[in-house]
Amino acid sequence: METLVPVELYRKMGVIVGTQICTKYMKRFVYKIIQEGFYILDVAKIDERLRLAGKFLSTFEPEKIAVVSVRVYGQKPAYMMCKYVGCKAILGRVIPGTFTNPRLEYYLEPDVVLVTDPRTDRQAVIEASKAGIPVVAFADTDNKVELIDLVIPANNRGRKSLALLYWILTREILRNKNILAPKQDLDVGPEAFMVQKTVESES
Amino acid sequence: MAKGSLVARRIDIYDNVKPPLCTSCGKPLNPSSKAVSFYCPNCGVFLIWRCEKCRTQGSTYKCPNCGFEGP
Known about the structure:
By secondary structure, chain A is of the alpha/beta class. In chain A, the strands form 2 sheets. Chain A has a 5-stranded parallel sheet, with helices on both faces. In chain A, strands 1-2 form a two-stranded antiparallel sheet. In chain A, α2 crosses α5 and α3 runs parallel beside α5. Chain A is globular. The model of chain A has no long low-confidence stretch (mean pLDDT 93). By secondary structure, chain B is of the alpha+beta class. Chain B has a two-stranded antiparallel ribbon with strand order 1-2. In chain B, strands 3-4 form a two-stranded antiparallel sheet. In chain B, β3 and β4 form a beta hairpin. Chain B is globular, with a radius of gyration of 15 Å. The N and C termini of chain B lie far apart (40 Å). The model of chain B has no long low-confidence stretch (mean pLDDT 86). The interface between A and B is medium-sized, with 20 and 18 residues.
């Protein structure tokens, strides 16, 4: 079966590179361990889960999807996804009560939550659990899957990796909603979803 | 909608109402529990219920319709 993007692109963007730690549940998505001790994820499983997540998220109203990213490298991809799909982005710190306290100004009542990292976005995951909202998450090999309803195994640390993952997911949602044709791409590439390096960090 | 139809759809105390069951462990779900329901991500037909305990433990669920195993 043809993958959503070429396998080389997955490798180039570092989507398949895991960490040196692997939790029990995430072992099923691991392809091999390289000499340095890094776990490498299975491309076919990443691709399959991205398809599933795209299909699953497209069943919800766009404004009822909340995309959460505390991680800096995930903020621009999440923002761009929300720009194209029309969902709500929660970038930076998740203020307690966002999903649970209706008295707050910034209270949201989403039908599904997409988180970049279950560990850094823990506040959003816990609140979604209290409110009975299903959670979709990008999970690396060292992530636990507690309170998660759909795992997308991938490298959720990398700048390029997160850009590509959100780009693919955006494209899949729009294709499933028939906004894009089945073989049509977005008008921008994954580079537009990427956080640009600052001059200081390059030197 | 006619008023009569609304009355007919009300649940009577003598009706047998089955609580939803957790797809992972099969236990009935209390209405006050923090359970989550969503349609199967693969087939979108079967409504999957997950109880709080199974979600916390990360227990797997399996769709009886298509065989998809999650999370």
